[in-house]
Specification:
It is built from 19 helices and no strands. The chain is mainly alpha-helical. The chain is globular and about 70 Å long. 55% of the residues are buried.
């Protein structure tokens, strides 16, 4: 690739990541309009599934994406993932029921999982290719410089992803108030088609010729089945079925069995989708656990902040999403500062530790929200959340890419994304279950979706119960981040 083609390809990658994260988070601003349109009676109870469907499909596909990148080459996998994402977006926009929308979100998630993870592999290969070519030496940096190769791309990509995570609900709220909720999906089509055309024209990456590789489809299937079983336990437990019911106990047993089969397959397969040898590397082992906890804590945060503002405070979708601007500002500023300090030699562990600590404090502040708490407190908490999360974006992916064997770059990168997506999906399901149980115990009865239709003391009681549930969700997220902080302190990052 020429230097010009490489720059275009890099911009395409950043646009793809922004598209993926915008779509994953844009739905949080339009959950109420979607529920009111498709299922005003029971829709609010299905919101966790609306979020989990995308995350589950994305999580299930991630291990296979990594292996496909290492065997077929990242270009083909990248183009296929974008195409699948666009098909899912078109279907979501045309959905006529909550069941259809949840199913189509799963289709979209299959492509969405590749957008983020495969794009990180593409960025790493673009940087590595630039470093290897003398003509591009100035742009690419010295050969072998891990943080200036794949890691630099991971850091910049992390800032873009974080900005999209914060700004997605703003765009979603604007479309919901001034157009129609379906446009949050249709808006992907022109952008995605432009990305697809540009990538097909300029993207040229190494091809893997000469050696015939076997793809572990059985391992990928077992990973998908395990993820599904775990999420069904968290989604159904205590809601659809009692925790000690045969259905839940059977699902737990199935989860354990599937995990055992997956580990056996990875230990015996010639070319596993998630090699167990990666877990022998201390940095990777701790990074995987950290990324899972971060995903668990953050997935439900913005969803329930927006729901709190709309349902409890009666703020319109667009106005509610504007509360995320402080978070976006914190993300952008601290992301730039962190990148500059890292380039000057500041250890990555410093930012991982301080990032988890500040994020835990932000979650703790959100856990104190009441029905009449000053809205400036919400803004302050979200600013802190941006300042904390902005220090974490890209750092763990960078460490993973620097620490993984070169031939396992794809499976290592998608591996850490797998744990983040699984943690996020579990967080959405668990937090939805926690909120429902607290509301059921303290509310006036019925679904939380009927709060707006209540009046008098029943409405006041429902609001108090819902706020208590939201506070419990944020307290759980704060607890997850405190565990992440302990792991971050114990993280051993090798010196370059």
């Amino acid at each position: 690739m020429t230097a010009g083609q490489r720059k275009i390809a890099f911009v395409v990658c950043l646009a793809t990541m922004l598209l993926a994260v915008l779509d994953q988070n844009i739905v949080s601003a339009v959950t109420i309009p979607i529920v009111q349109d498709l299922d005003p009676v029971h829709g609010i109870d299905r919101v966790p599934w609306l979020i989990s469907a995308f995350a589950l499909a994305s999580t299930a596909a991630l291990p296979l994406y990594g292996k496909l990148c290492d065997t077929l080459g990242a270009r083909k996998v990248f183009l296929s993932a974008v195409a699948a994402f666009l098909v899912g977006s078109a279907l979501c926009g045309a959905a006529q029921s909550m069941a259809q929308l949840i199913a189509f979100r799963a289709v979209q998630g299959i492509g969405g999982g590749g957008l983020m993870s495969v794009t990180m592999v593409v960025i790493a290969q673009l940087k590595a290719g630039a470093a290897e070519e003398p003509a591009d030496a100035k742009a690419g940096g010295a050969k072998g410089g891990g943080s200036k190769g794949g890691g630099g791309g991971a850091g910049i990509g992390g800032i873009v992803a974080g900005s999209g995570m914060a700004l997605g609900p703003v765009l979603g709220g604007f479309l919901a108030d001034h157009a129609d909720w379906r446009w949050v999906f249709y808006v992907n089509l022109p952008i995605g088609l432009a990305v697809l055309a540009a990538a097909a024209a300029v993207l040229k990456l190494p091809q893997h010729h000469g050696t015939r590789h076997r793809i572990d489809f059985l391992g990928a299937g077992l990973a998908a089945a395990f993820s599904t079983a775990v999420l069904l336990v968290t989604e159904w437990g205590g809601k659809e079925y009692a925790w000690d019911s045969p259905a839940i106990l059977g699902m737990i047993a199935a989860s354990v069995l599937l995990l055992g089969l997956f580990l056996w397959r990875q230990a015996t397969a010639a070319e596993p989708v998630l090699p167990l040898s990666l877990f022998k590397i201390p940095v990777l082992r701790t990074s995987f656990a950290l990324q899972a906890l971060i995903g668990t804590a953050l997935m439900g945060s913005m969803i329930y902040v927006i729901v709190y503002l709309q349902l409890v405070r009666g703020i319109a979708a667009t106005d509610a999403s504007l509360f995320l601007i402080p978070m976006a500002a914190g993300l952008s500023v601290i992301g730039i500062v962190t990148g500059k300090l890292t380039a000057r030699g500041w250890p990555q562990k410093t930012f991982i530790v301080t990032g988890t600590a500040v994020t835990a404090a932000a979650m703790g502040l959100l856990a104190t929200l009441g029905a009449d708490t000053g809205l400036w407190v919400v803004g302050l908490a979200l600013l802190l959340l941006g300042l904390g999360f902005g220090q974490l974006l890209g750092q763990l992916i960078q460490l993973t890419q620097e620490s993984a064997p070169p031939r396992q770059l794809g499976v290592a990168t998608t591996g850490i994304r797998f744990f983040q997506s699984l943690g996020g999906a579990l967080g959405a399901s668990l937090f939805g279950t926690v909120l429902a149980r607290v509301y059921e115990a303290k509310g006036p009865g019925g679904s939380a979706g009927r709060i707006a239709a209540l009046g008098g003391e029943a409405h006041a009681q429902a609001i108090r119960a819902f706020v208590s549930g939201v506070d419990t969700v944020f307290a759980c997220a704060a607890g997850a981040m405190l565990v992440a902080l302990l792991l971050a302190i114990r993280l051993r990052v090798p010196r370059p």
